[in-house]
Design a protein that fits this description.
Blueprint lengths: L1 H21 L8 E5 L2 E3 L11 E3 L5 E5 L2 H7 L5 H4 L6 H10 L4 H53 L3 E3 L3 E4 L2 E4 L1
Antiparallel strand pairs: 1-4, 2-3, 5-6, 6-7
């Protein structure tokens, strides 16, 4: 009787552990917020002006004990601050000047970005041209394959010829 009780207890524990594993949850032990300075960027996707990016090295870091602690100690940002919007070239330049970037650094980055953008456009144009050529040859090959598939129906089965070879649609096949 005692053995059955131990066995039954082990099954209960196993069921409990399986149930615990099946319940999915996420737990955060703390929250670390890193503040990074804005620096001159190199992404050529801007249409004009110089791009911005965050520096790799954090300027300041703050650790909160929990998500609740973070939410309690930080002010809720206004909707205007959380809305993502495109910055105009003048505003990006003004921000960089305000954080200490030199006009020379900004102009150098802008020239580099413009050069990269022009190279990408030239590559895109080249790819379009090559793509048209590729599509042309694909169409030719497709037409040839379709014609080969249609011709055996019109000509009938391949006929044997001298030398133990079959001739089919101008192609020789060894027997």
């Amino acid at each position: 009787m005692g053995l059955m009780q131990q066995s039954f207890g082990a099954e209960e524990a196993l069921d409990f552990n399986l149930q615990a594993l099946q319940e999915k949850r996420v737990v955060f032990s703390s929250v670390v917020v890193h503040l990074h300075p804005v620096v001159v960027g190199d992404n050529p996707s801007v249409t004009e002006g110089v791009p911005l990016m965050l520096d790799w090295k954090a300027q300041e870091s703050t650790t909160y004990e929990s998500v609740d602690d973070y939410e309690e100690k930080t002010a809720k940002p206004s909707p205007a601050l959380t809305t993502v919007r495109k910055l105009e070239a003048e505003e990006r330049m003004f921000r960089l000047l305000n954080v200490g970037a030199s006009l020379q650094d900004i102009q150098r980055a802008e020239a580099l970005v413009n050069n990269t953008r022009q190279e990408r456009e030239a590559t895109r144009q080249s790819d379009l041209l090559l793509g048209h050529r590729t599509n042309f040859w694909k169409a030719i090959r497709q037409e040839e394959q379709e014609q080969e598939e249609r011709e055996p129906e019109l000509l009938g089965p391949p006929q044997p010829c001298r030398g133990g070879r079959k001739k089919s649609l101008n192609k020789e096949v060894l027997l």
